[in-house]
Design goal:
This is LLM class F420-dependent oxidoreductase. The chain has 279 residues and is α/β, with parallel strands linked by helices. It has twelve helices and eleven strands.
């Protein structure tokens, strides 16, 4: 692993990321900015965030293999790496079947995509894959720098580390709401879990595998499920929740800081950074 991510980063959908926000995230001491959603193959947003900053790493979480041709992604990777060496991690994945009409043989298709990245010179240490189940986790260990699990818990992190072994990047995403009122925090966090993820079978299968029940997944998710997937409370409480992933074997945690409506995410990011001891 050659990209230095630090222990904590910020995950945010591409539509909510700007160069100015990336500069602020870097100034707060976070080690990485993760571009959520399915950024296009030109990777122009990643380049603009790197152009605007000096040290913070930028990763994609994730480029969707069905909509972004490997050859174009590889060319973008090399352009960015030449300009900002050692600061970009290419995250790729298969997405989910409900969103893609071409979703067939996902494992074999991802293997073929990695083969194409190999052929175009994208190094193993410069890429990672979205991985939840054992087969994808093993592929992450065999063919990339590591795994980028999404919508998981420290239990999944612990089981993933046991499967991956040491020396393989493990960087789970975890949603957070800085709010000491549980009902209000759940009201903010639940929509980001319910739609679309509780309707997508790769995520629901993983949650069931982790011991949650169909009842937990119904009607927008039980309070217990939401509390597990969305860390909430004051900044110190949330920081302790994120640290559980590190204790379980994660190398880096991607915090998705949620706010009500379109509220400015910077104040809770700042409070969390202080509680994490960053900066």
């Amino acid at each position: 692993m050659t990209v230095e991510l630090g222990r904590y980063g910020i995950w945010r959908h591409a539509g909510g990321l700007t160069p100015d926000l990336a500069r602020d995230i870097e100034a707060l001491g976070y080690g990485a900015v993760w571009i959520g959603g399915s950024p296009p193959a030109d990777l122009e947003l990643a380049e603009s965030l790197l152009d605007a900053t000096e040290r913070v790493a930028v990763g994609t979480s994730i480029v969707n293999i069905w909509s972004s041709p490997a050859a174009e992604v590889a060319a973008s990777y090399h352009r960015i790496e030449a300009k900002h060496p050692g600061r970009f991690l290419l995250g790729v994945g298969v997405g989910h079947p409900e969103a893609t009409s071409d979703y067939t043989r996902p494992y074999a298709s991802l293997v073929a995509y990695l083969d194409a990245l190999d052929a175009d010179g994208v190094p193993v240490e410069g890429r990672a894959i979205a991985a939840l189940g054992p087969r994808m986790l093993r592929l992450a260990a065999d063919r990339t720098a590591g795994a980028l699990p999404y919508l998981t818990t420290p239990r999944h992190t612990r089981e993933s580390r046991d499967l991956l072994g040491e020396g393989v990047l493990l960087a789970p995403e975890h949603k957070v709401v800085i709010d000491t009122d549980p009902a209000r925090a759940r009201a903010v966090g639940r929509p980001f879990v319910h739609k679309p993820y509780l309707g997508l079978r790769n995520y629901t299968s993983n949650l069931l595998r982790l011991g949650w029940t169909e009842a937990d997944l119904a009607d927008g998710g039980s309070d217990a499920l939401i509390d597990a997937l969305v860390a909430h409370g004051d900044a110190a409480t949330v920081a302790a929740r994120l640290a559980e992933h590190l204790d379980a074997g994660a190398d880096h945690v991607c915090a998705q800081v949620l706010t009500e409506g379109y509220a400015d995410p910077l104040p809770p990011m700042r409070a969390l950074a202080e509680a994490l001891g960053l900066g």
